[in-house]
Amino acid sequence: MRRAPALLLLSLAAASPADAADDAIEGMAGPYGERLRYDPKGLTLSFPEPEVKLQIGGRLHIDAGAARFSRPGLGATFPDTVAVRRSWIEPTLTIGKDWVVAFQYDFSDPILPINDAFVAWKGLPDTILTLGNMKVPFSLEWLQSNNDTLFAERSLANAFVPDRRFGFAIGHHGQAWTAVASVFGDAASNGITGDGVAAAGRATVAPILEERETLHLGVAGIVQSRARGDGAFNFSTPAEAFLFARPFVDTGDLPDAARVSRIGAEFAYRNGPILVQAEYIHAAIDRFAGPGGALPSLGFQGGYVEAGWVLNGAGRAYALVPKGGTTYATFKGIQPRDDQRISRGGIGVFELSARYSAIELNARGFRGGAERDVTLGLSWYPEPNLRLIANVIHGRVQPGAAQSDALGTAPFSVDTILGRLQIYW
């Protein structure tokens, strides 16, 4: 048994590429029929009976940028002009056709390092049952992989979307529709408890679902109940760049949040190399009664409209069903053809993008701030596992009360240039 890993590595080193077209290297079968393979999807260890595969993937995102405020006296924009945005290891274990065990760990995040950590069962027709830490089924933009979003960061409206949470989800799909229902607690990295209990659901339909053309419509909602002993709640967002040291709009801590409700609407249309996508999200916070009686509820909103154009490629395919979890009905990333790869004499694939996003955290005498951003982007895909992103962002900010000490109360604008090196396998 101890010699098996060594034999696998030796067989992999001695093997020739299984297929020159996809740069796969496959080792000879080991003493128990196990086989090691390396390809653009990562490192995969497979066993013959029962069919078991362990795929080890990962991603590394490195950001660099510069920014400028329109008003002096606001302090430094970035604490560091270069930083690691993500550094993930992603093993996935597949057992037969029915079981998937997924795990993601971010070495660059000391607060919430555990991302996906779930077990999924697909033994029922067109149904996936998932238990563990996963994405809450809410928002098309959030459910898309951060490898595949049109821009380096998601929009301002993503402030209303919870991070991954521990819970149970059931998803079902037809030929052109999906439905997911789930119950969640807190994140696994936070110990599951301490942020109430949430029920979430999402439904999508694709009236047009063809290889070249897709029309996507979706609606989702979350209702989260919280106890008085739970931690403080807040909504906040930076100006669509990870490098900023602080958010510009922020509700501040809301220790009296009793129930948080969110509802979102999704639209996307893809025709060949062109993709147009939009979302609107409304969030409401009902508060515990204070000494003077009931406190008014707070209503916030946000959304975005974005478009992408692949200049010399086929565009983004539509993925109706995930391997596990809740990421139904999303758009995949760009994959250059073999003849487009720079290692094969090509120039890669280029994608232009533009976005307008907005968030409003002011309500009924409560001032959390407001922001509007316009972003232009260019992505270059020189190889299947490599992407370079350049974003130019212009934001207009009305600071909230929670940020008034650092940012004052007068509106200001901020201009940002952001670049990212993105490696994933």
Description:
With 425 residues, the protein is mainly β. The protein is 5% helix and 53% strand. The protein has helices at residues 3-14, 140-143, 404-407, and strands at 17-19, 24-26, 35-39, 42-47, 52-69, 82-95, 99-106, 114-121, 127-134, 165-173, 177-184, 197-209, 213-225, 236-237, 249-250, 257-271, 274-287, 298-310, 318-319, 330-331, 349-363, 366-383, 386-399, 412-424. The strands form three sheets. Strands 5-6-7-8-9-10-11-12-13-16-17-18-21-22-23-24 form a 16-stranded antiparallel beta barrel. Strands 14-15 form a two-stranded antiparallel ribbon. A hairpin with a 7-residue loop joins strand 7 and strand 8. The longest helix has 12 residues, at 3-14.
Which helices and strands, and how do they pair?
Blueprint: H1 3-14, E1 17-19, E2 24-26, E3 35-39, E4 42-47, E5 52-69, E6 82-95, E7 99-106, E8 114-121, E9 127-134, H2 140-143, E10 165-173, E11 177-184, E12 197-209, E13 213-225, E14 236-237, E15 249-250, E16 257-271, E17 274-287, E18 298-310, E19 318-319, E20 330-331, E21 349-363, E22 366-383, E23 386-399, H3 404-407, E24 412-424
Antiparallel strand pairs: 1-2, 2-3, 3-4, 4-5, 5-6, 5-24, 6-7, 7-8, 8-9, 9-10, 10-11, 11-12, 12-13, 13-16, 14-15, 16-17, 17-18, 18-21, 19-20, 21-22, 22-23, 23-24
Signal peptide: 1-20
Keywords: Signal
Protein name: Phosphate-selective porin OprO/OprP
